[in-house]
Each structure stands twice: as C-alpha cells, then as structure tokens.
Amino acid sequence: MSTSSRKLQSEINRILYVKNLSYSVTSEELYDLFGKFGSIRQIRLGNAQNTRGTAFVVYDDIQDAKMACDKLSGFNFQNRYLVVLYHQPDKVAQT
C-alpha cells in the first residue's frame, strides 16, 4: 500500500465535522439527515460564537460515516451547501 493510500485510510474515521450549517438547525434535524446512513452515537452542535454553524456527527460504524461523508458533502440542506469532512484530532490540537 502506498504512503498516500495509508494516509487517506487513517483520515477516515467515525467522526464527521460538518460546516456551513444554518445557525437555526437543530440536533433533531441533523439526526434525521445523517441518520439515513446508519446508527448515530452522538451529534454535537457548535453553539459558541466561533463554532456556530458547525457540528460533529459520531457514527457507530466507520462505513456509515464514510457513506454519509461521500453523499452529504456538497448537499443542499436548508438552502446551504454542506461541507462534510472527517474529524482530524491532530489538526484541532494544533489550533
């Protein structure tokens, strides 16, 4: 396996970071949308000034998270195009 393939595989995980959400979105609405792809363990909405419009979605299964990321990145939800990324804890720790 090439180095780039290994790096890509290590970036895929059960936790998705979602940006560009409406400030009025609720956890229930996110459960309805993201729950179509599998069992969700937790959703955390950003509510601080610098985290509004973002959320973390934690799936029970990594394959469900991958499918949701693939299908919902760029999806138009509440008249906003979602940005869905895999959570990268090492990048968060650096900021």
From TrEMBL:
**GO CC terms, sorted:** cytoplasm; U2 snRNP
Give a GO molecular function annotation for the protein.
mRNA binding
Q: Which CDD domains match?
A: RRM_SF3B14 (cd12241)
A Pfam family (short name) is RRM_1
Q: Where in the cell?
A: Nucleus
Q: Which domain of life is it from?
A: Eukaryota
- Supply one GO BP term: mRNA processing
Q: Which residues form the RRM domain?
A: 14-89
Signal peptide positions are: none
| Name of the protein | RRM domain-containing protein
Q: Which organism is this entry from?
A: Lipomyces starkeyi NRRL Y-11557
